[in-house]
Amino acid sequence: MPSHVAIIMDGNGRWAERHGLPRLSGHEKGVESVRTVLEHACRLSIRYVTVYAFSSENWERPEDEVQGLMQLFGEYLRKEKETFLREGIRLRAIGDRSRLPVSVRELLGQIEEETAGGENLDFILAVSYGGRDEIVRAARRLGMAIQAGEVAPDAIRPEEFSRYLDTDGIPDPDLLIRTSGEFRISNFLLWQLAYTEIVVTDVLWPDFSGEEFDRCLCEFSRRERRFGRRSVQESFDDSRIA
Ligand code: IPE
Ligand code: IPE
Ligand code: MG
User: Fold this and answer.
1) Is the shortest distance between the CB of 9 and ligand 1 below 6 Å?
2) What does DSSP say about strands 89-94 and 4-8: parallel, antiparallel, or unpaired?
3) Does residue 2's CB lie within 6 angstroms of at least one atom of ligand 1?
4) pLDDT digit string, tens, across residues 157-212
5) Would you place residue 74 in the very low, low, confident or very high pLDDT band (cuts 50, 70, 90)?
6) Which domains does the chain carry?
7) Residue 37 C-alpha to ligand 1 middle, in angstroms?
């Protein structure tokens, strides 16, 4: 079982189109899939779930879709707060908050604070998030620490650098699921996905169910993770020869 599952929730627009509905209905239906995934993850004791809800490039979409999505985030957060508290879910947002509407930003901060004691599951919401943007913001903060004489450039290792990322303290994802059949990362967690197993499903995000989640987990369990080393079986055989 993976400890951290990250999800690129894609295909809301196509789902709406197939049902002859406006795009926003696809996003609304997609919110239900988020609920399903969190319920399921709690049951299976998956410790971290990160979802890609809005990318730094999604700001370029038409104004009405962006506005609709921001409103939906607000509604979702207000509605779900009680569930987070009841289920021991700790919310944490990653991304460039400065671009978010003040109401959404405040709500995120407030719920992060209120759910900080949640011990069952860390729910990481990537909004206004881009992997490159995150790395650049981290480099900027690190540069300032160097300028202030707090960090010696020679001492910077990947572990130190990752402390400046939005995901500081969160282990890298074990499994990345992307829905709607697209084989790309779309600027998600560029640093953190270095050795993550990727599962792509054709199911559109609003149709993503507990059963589909199980299928993705099952596929993950069949993977052999090597992290650049040699396979477990092979080193076992070697030791017998020796
Ligand atoms: C994913 O669904 C949700 C967001 C990116 C906000 P899309 O809106 O990208 O749906 P498709 O890919 O057009 O079907
Ligand atoms: C990725 O989906 C972003 C989110 C799911 C929030 P997109 O629909 O924006 O990605 P592309 O454009 O297909 O790469
Ligand atoms: Mg898409």
Assistant:
1) yes
2) unpaired
3) no
4) 999 999 999 999 999 999 999 999 999 999 999 999 999 999 999 999 999 999 99
5) very high
6) 4-241 (3.40.1180.10)
7) 18
